[in-house]
């Protein structure tokens, strides 16, 4: 072989070695000003992971925004937002890639402020290792404990405790030892199995890449040595093959495959599989990729499976090992980290996304919330921003799942607000509630159609909504009288009347209002199933609950009637004297005064009670039904 080929072969060998190097994902977290950005910035600088233009920009930014005088401010490498540079804090999660001879890394630098805890959880959700920064001068702070709790909740089993700024405490062993012992006690309480404490000064570089002569009493690994050598056990590999179906690949009539990324295990042609939630079984015919068929595929690979049999498999289904499939359920016990600006209210419907599947879901009960500083359970009726609760979840259809400790993909989920489409929570599934598998729909021979036919009418739910004093009950009562006179079978569910019986245990907090509407909507649905025209007269101030009620009914059966009365007019009427009491502070959480009313965005009928009489408005409702 000629010498001309030697350099290219060496380059090819180096590139091959780089491609096959292990990838470690880790986060840096902790309290404010513990030095997270400085640690990662200096690590990137020292491992020569920066291009010339990045170095030039760093030097320029250090002169403009730096906190180290004429020296380089390594934290600026991670603080990418202008607001971060101006304030000297991390706000968003900053991701960076770098590589050494032994390993490739993706690091997520997470914000330390409590108000950005949700950003930290985002970074932790995909990490294998957490680097928890502790300021040697301050010790373990509440935010250190908060982040450690989330690290534990999200299944990170390896933690490097970086006791930073040791140069500011004279490299005192006693300071380090006390912090390390305190954190190990916390880790044991949280169930974090593997903890390595390292004393360092990120700013000075002590114990960052190599061990420092400033701390001869420390004989453990440096930060980089630990990151290059830590062996991470990834949950999910031992549970069997799992493929959440992302796409049904049908380029022509001769090919039908199921595409997705392998979440766990290995798959080979001829392996027996089961498609969930249907439970249909088959065998793998081919494992297809863009580069051709494979003899086997494992976790993290994007593949398309073809099966020996024609199965009805759709996006969101899971193809799993036939000998060890995951469970299927629609009710769960779960931990929920709330990220929404508005509180989590039990009974309110959200979208839940797990794997590649999206379903409707609601929290049926908050069993307790967690004091992240002490891990003590606390009673709670709702969850505010950044709070963690242990909850019961109900889904409108069963989904394949596994406990988060066994499989992150099939055990982790997010909740999405159905109006704004914003992600409002992240959660982890613990187990299916036993009763979920014991409750089934009982077939009834006399159905809604038969009950409506004998009454000679179409079932409807007329949902009257508006402020107190708007005229809901008056108009609903007139509509009921006229329908009854015309021979229709009707029933009224009035807000005040229902609170004397079915809902007498509920107050007027936001949580109780949600439950109030949930119960009434379910009763209205039962009455509709009986073939009735049911008239519901409730303030029902929240759009989310009115949408939840609508979703219970078939298309066209739910008619939202908005009684459009301005607050000042409703308050002038004040038939029951409630507005006067609310203004005097004798009634709390009164809609329109200290509790909001969300105006319908697309009601079937909008009735203006200022310009038209109740009788004319009632006739408009009758005309709508007859049309």
Automatic annotation (TrEMBL):
Its EC number is 2.7.7.4, 2.7.1.25. It holds the Pfam family GTP_EFTU. The active site is at residue 540. The keyword Nucleotide-binding applies. Residues 21-236 form the Tr-type G domain. GO terms for molecular function: sulfate adenylyltransferase (ATP) activity. GTP binds at residues 30-37, 109-113, 164-167. It catalyses: adenosine 5'-phosphosulfate + ATP = 3'-phosphoadenylyl sulfate + ADP + H(+); sulfate + ATP + H(+) = adenosine 5'-phosphosulfate + diphosphate. SUPFAM superfamilies: EF-Tu/eEF-1alpha/eIF2-gamma C-terminal domain (SSF50465), P-loop containing nucleoside triphosphate hydrolases (SSF52540), Translation proteins (SSF50447). It is an enzyme of class 2 (transferase). Pathway: Sulfur metabolism; hydrogen sulfide biosynthesis; sulfite from sulfate: step 2/3; Sulfur metabolism; hydrogen sulfide biosynthesis; sulfite from sulfate: step 1/3. Keywords: ATP-binding, GTP-binding, Kinase, Multifunctional enzyme, Nucleotide-binding, Nucleotidyltransferase, Phosphoprotein, Transferase. It comes from the Bacteria. ATP binds at residues 466-473. PROSITE patterns: G_TR_1 (PS00301), G_TR_2 (PS51722). The keyword ATP-binding applies. Heterodimer composed of CysD, the smaller subunit, and CysN. HAMAP family: Adenylyl_sulf_kinase, Sulf_adenylyltr_sub1. With CysD forms the ATP sulfurylase (ATPS) that catalyzes the adenylation of sulfate producing adenosine 5'-phosphosulfate (APS) and diphosphate, the first enzymatic step in sulfur assimilation pathway. APS synthesis involves the formation of a high-energy phosphoric-sulfuric acid anhydride bond driven by GTP hydrolysis by CysN coupled to ATP hydrolysis by CysD. Catalyzes the synthesis of activated sulfate. Belongs to the TRAFAC class translation factor GTPase superfamily. Classic translation factor GTPase family. CysN/NodQ subfamily. In the C-terminal section; belongs to the APS kinase family. This is Multifunctional fusion protein. The lineage of its organism: Bacteria, Pseudomonadati, Pseudomonadota, Gammaproteobacteria, Lysobacterales.
């Amino acid at each position: 072989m000629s010498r001309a080929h030697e350099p290219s072969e060496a380059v090819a060998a180096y590139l091959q070695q780089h491609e096959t190097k292990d990838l470690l994902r880790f986060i840096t977290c902790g309290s404010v000003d513990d030095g997270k950005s400085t640690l990662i910035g200096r690590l990137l600088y020292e491992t020569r992971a920066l291009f010339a233009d990045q170095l030039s920009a760093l030097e320029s930014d250090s002169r403009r925004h730096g906190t180290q005088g004429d020296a380089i401010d390594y934290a600026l490498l991670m603080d990418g937002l202008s607001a971060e540079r101006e304030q000297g804090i991390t706000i968003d999660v900053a991701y960076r890639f770098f590589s050494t001879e032994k390993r490739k890394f993706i690091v997520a630098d997470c914000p330390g402020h409590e108000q950005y805890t949700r950003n930290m959880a985002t970074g932790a959700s995909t990490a294998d290792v957490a680097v928890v920064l502790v300021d040697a001068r301050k010790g373990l702070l509440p935010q250190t404990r908060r982040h450690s709790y989330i690290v534990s909740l999200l299944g990170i089993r390896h933690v490097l405790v970086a006791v930073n700024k040791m140069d500011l405490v004279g490299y005192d062993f006693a300071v380090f030892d006390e912090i390390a012992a305190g954190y190990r006690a916390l880790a044991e309480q949280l169930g974090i199995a593997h903890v390595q404490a390292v004393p360092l000064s990120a700013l000075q570089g002590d114990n960052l890449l190599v061990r420092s002569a400033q701390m001869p009493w420390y004989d453990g690994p440096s930060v980089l040595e630990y990151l290059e050598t830590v062996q991470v056990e990834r949950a999910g590999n031992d549970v069997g093959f799992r493929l959440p179906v992302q796409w049904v690949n049908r380029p022509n009539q001769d090919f039908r495959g199921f595409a997705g990324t392998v979440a766990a295990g290995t798959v080979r042609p001829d392996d027996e599989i089961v498609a969930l939630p249907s439970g249909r079984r088959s065998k793998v015919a081919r494992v297809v990729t863009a580069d051709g068929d494979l003899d086997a595929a494992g976790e993290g690979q994007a593949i398309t499976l073809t099966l020996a049999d024609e199965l009805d498999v759709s996006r969101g289904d899971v193809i799993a090992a036939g000998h060890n499939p995951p469970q299927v359920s629609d009710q769960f016990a779960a931990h929920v980290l709330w990220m929404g600006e508005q509180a989590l209210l039990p009974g309110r419907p959200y979208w839940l996304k797990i794997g590649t599947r999206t379903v409707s879901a609601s929290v049926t009960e908050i069993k307790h919330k967690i004091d992240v500083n002490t891990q003590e359970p606390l009673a709670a009726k709702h969850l505010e921003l950044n709070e963690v609760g242990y909850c019961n979840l109900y889904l409108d259809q069963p989904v394949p799942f596994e406990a988060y400790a066994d499989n992150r993909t099939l055990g982790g989920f997010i909740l999405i607000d159905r109006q704004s489409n914003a992600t409002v929570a992240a959660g982890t599934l613990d187990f299916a509630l036993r009763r979920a598998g014991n409750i089934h729909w009982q077939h009834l021979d006399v159905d809604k159609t038969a009950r409506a036919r004998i009454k000679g009418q179409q079932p409807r739910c007329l949902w009257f909504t508006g402020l107190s004093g708007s005229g809901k009950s008056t108009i609903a009562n007139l509509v009921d009288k006229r329908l009854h006179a015309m021979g229709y079978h009707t029933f009224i569910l009035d807000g005040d009347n229902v609170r004397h019986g079915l809902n007498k245990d509920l107050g007027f907090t936001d949580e109780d209002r949600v439950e109030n509407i949930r119960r009434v909507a379910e009763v209205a649905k039962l009455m509709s199933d009986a073939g009735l025209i049911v008239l519901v007269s409730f303030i029902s101030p929240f759009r989310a609950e009115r949408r939840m009620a609508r979703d219970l009914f078939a298309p066209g059966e739910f008619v939202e009637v908005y009684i459009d009365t301005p607050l000042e007019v409703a308050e002038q009427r004040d038939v029951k004297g409630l507005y006067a009491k609310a203004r005097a502070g004798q009634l709390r959480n009164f809609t329109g005064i200290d509790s909001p009313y969300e105006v319908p965005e697309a009601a079937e009928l909008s009735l203006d009670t200022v310009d038209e009489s109740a009788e004319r408005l009632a006739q408009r409702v009758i005309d709508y039904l007859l049309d």
